[in-house]
Amino acid sequence: MKILAIESSCDETAAAVVEDGRRVLSNVISSQVQEHKIYGGVVPEIASRRHAEAISGVVQKALADADTSLDELEAIAVTYAPGLIGALLVGVNYAKGLAYASGKPLVPVHHLRSHIAASYISHPDLKPPFFCLVVSGGNTMMVEVKTYTDFEVIGRTRDDAAGEALDKAARAMGLPYPGGLNLDKLCKDGDSTAYKFPTPKVEGSEFDFSFSGLKTSVINTIHNAKQKNGEINVPDLGASFMKAVSNCLCKSTEKAMLQKNYTTLVLAGGVSANSVLRKDMEELCKKHGFKLYLPELSLCGDNAVMVASQGYYEYLAGKRAGLELNAFAGLDIAEG
Ligand code: KG4
C-alpha cells in the first residue's frame, strides 16, 4: 500500500512515497535553511512563500523517484498541525487539490506523531507500546505511545522547548543558525564540567520540564563576562549548557519510565540528533537494561517519510479528512 506524504510545517518542503508504512520509495526535501540563516531564524512569511514555490516540483520528484503514478497511491497524507500556520496551509491546500483531482483519500497527520514514526523506518521491529521523549524546536514532551494512534502526554515543557533553548543559547554564543546543530559540533571540543548551571525544578507536576531558566542563565553568564571584560570559553560554555539540558531530559525520562514500567524508549524530533543526548540516553538505557531506539540522523529533522509512515497507520485506523481540512498552529498530540 503506497502513500504519498507532504510536509511543510516549518522550513523544509518535503514529499515522499512510502510502502506499507515502512519501506521508503522516495524522499525529497527542499530546505530553506540557507535563506533563513541571514535572519538568524525562520521568518514565517518567507517560509510560506518558498513552500508555495517549491511544492509542485518536490511532489512531482517524489512520485518520479518512486516510479509511482497518482493512480497507484492508496492515499495522500499531509502534515496539518502543529507548525507555522502559513507554511502548513501551503502543504494542506496542495494535498487537498491533489486528493480532489485524483479521487484519493486525504489523511491528516499530526507533526509530532510523525516525528515518532521516524523510528518505524529505521527500526522494522519497533511496535507500540513504548515510551517516547519528543525533543524538537517547538515542543518537548514525554509521551506514552500506547498504539500507533493512541498517545498520552505525561509531561511537557512549561516554557521553552529544548530545541528553542539550544537555538537561543547558541545565538547568544555567536553561533549561526541552525543553532542546535552548530552547538552540537562546538561541544565536541568543550569541557562540560567547566560552567555550572542550576537544575530546573517545576512546581506541581513531577514530569514537566522548564528550560527558560537554563537559557537565561547561559545568556547572563555571557553578559556578565562582557560587562567585566572577562573571557568566555565558548566550547566549554556550549558543552556545559548542552550537558545541563541533556541531564534534565535524562533524569525525567528515567524517573517516568521506572514509575510507568516502560522498558522501551524512543527518541523523536530534531534535538534527538544531538550527539550528547544520544550518548547520555544510551548510557541510561544500558544502566537499566532498557531497549533504546534512535531515529537515523537523516530522519531526525523534518521530512515527509515520517509523515507517510504515520499516515499509513492513521489510514489503517480509519482517519480521513474532507476538503474542509484546515491547518492548526497548535494541537495536542493526543487529539491529532
Ligand atoms: O523537530 P525539528 O526538526 O523541528 C520542529 O518540528 O520543531 O527540530 C528542530 C530543532 C531546532 O531547535 C534545532 O536547533 C534542533 O532541532 N537540532 C539540534 C540538532 N539538530 C537539530 N539540536 C541539537 N543538536 C543537534 N544535532
Associated small molecules? 5'-O-[(R)-(carboxyoxy)(hydroxy)phosphoryl]adenosine
Number of helices: 10
Report the radius of gyration as a whole number of Å: 20 Å
Widest beta sheet: strand line-up: 3-2-1-4-5
At CATH level 2, the architecture of the largest domain is 2-Layer Sandwich
Question: Class of the largest domain in CATH?
Answer: Alpha Beta
Fill in the CATH topology of the largest domain. Answer: Nucleotidyltransferase, domain 5
Helix content: 40-55%
First-residue to last-residue Cα separation: 23 Å
CATH level 4 superfamily of the largest domain: ATPase, nucleotide binding domain
Number of strands: 10
Major sheet size, sense and barrel closure: 5 strands, mixed
Structural shape: globular
* Mean of pLDDT: 96
- SSE sequence, one letter per element: EEEHHEHEHEEEHHHHEHEH
Task: Please identify the structural class as seen in this structure.
Answer: alpha/beta
Assembly type: single chain
Describe the protein in words.
The chain has 336 residues and is α/β, with parallel strands linked by helices. The chain has two domains: 132 residues, ATPase, nucleotide binding domain (Nucleotidyltransferase, domain 5); 170 residues, ATPase, nucleotide binding domain (Nucleotidyltransferase, domain 5, 2-Layer Sandwich). Helix content is 43%, strand content 19%. The chain is built from ten helices and ten strands. Strands 3-2-1-4-5 form a five-stranded mixed beta sheet, sandwiched between helices. A five-stranded mixed beta sheet has the order 8-7-6-9-10, with helices on both faces. The structure holds 5'-O-[(R)-(carboxyoxy)(hydroxy)phosphoryl]adenosine. The site of 5'-O-[(R)-(carboxyoxy)(hydroxy)phosphoryl]adenosine has 21 residues, from helix 4, helix 5 and helix 6.
